[in-house]
Specification:
elongated; 8 helices; mainly alpha; 82% helix; 154 residues; transmembrane
Length: 154
């Protein structure tokens, strides 16, 4: 049952939906969009520093994401005794895995210098946005958990 829940959390997410839509746009309109991409000039300094965006978002997610499972010393015990805590833990694990999985294509494209091509830039952008959506999910989860814990204490 938990394995199915892992799959559900992975495949039914904003990040995965965004990646599927981006892939569909690329398949159906990629050639059209690529023509305009080739006419643009790209700042070499921007390409050199582009990797810092997904790395910094991933770093923030991995560092601050722990607050989802351990909000603070006082309320963590309440959260960990919650009967559906296992679901929260699965969401956390999938979020961390997504963070790592989505970072790898960004690193690969940047490392081989693929940001100069439409295909590489599209792939980098797709996964950089997916990392951002993942970070937003962690941020909203932290807010929701803190709110729920405050209500449970009162």
């Amino acid at each position: 049952m938990k394995a199915l829940y892992y799959l559900r959390v992975f495949f039914i997410s904003y990040e995965f939906v965004f990646l599927i839509l981006s892939f569909a746009i690329y398949i159906f309109y990629g050639e059209f969009i690529g023509k305009y991409f080739l006419t643009m000039s790209i700042n070499e300094d921007a390409l050199k520093w582009a990797m810092f965006f997904p790395i910094s978002i991933s770093g923030w997610t991995l560092k601050e994401g722990i607050g989802v499972l351990f909000p603070d010393d006082r309320t963590s015990k309440i959260l960990h005794s919650w009967p559906d805590y296992w679901r929260l833990k699965i969401h956390f694990n999938v979020g961390v895995l997504n963070c790592i999985i989505y970072l790898l294509p960004c690193i690969g494209v940047w490392f081989v210098g693929g940001l100069n091509t439409f295909d590489g830039a599209w792939l980098f952008f797709m996964f950089a946005v997916a990392i951002s959506l993942n970070a937003i999910s962690f941020y909203t989860a932290k807010i929701s958990i803190r709110s729920a814990l405050i209500r449970s204490i009162e």
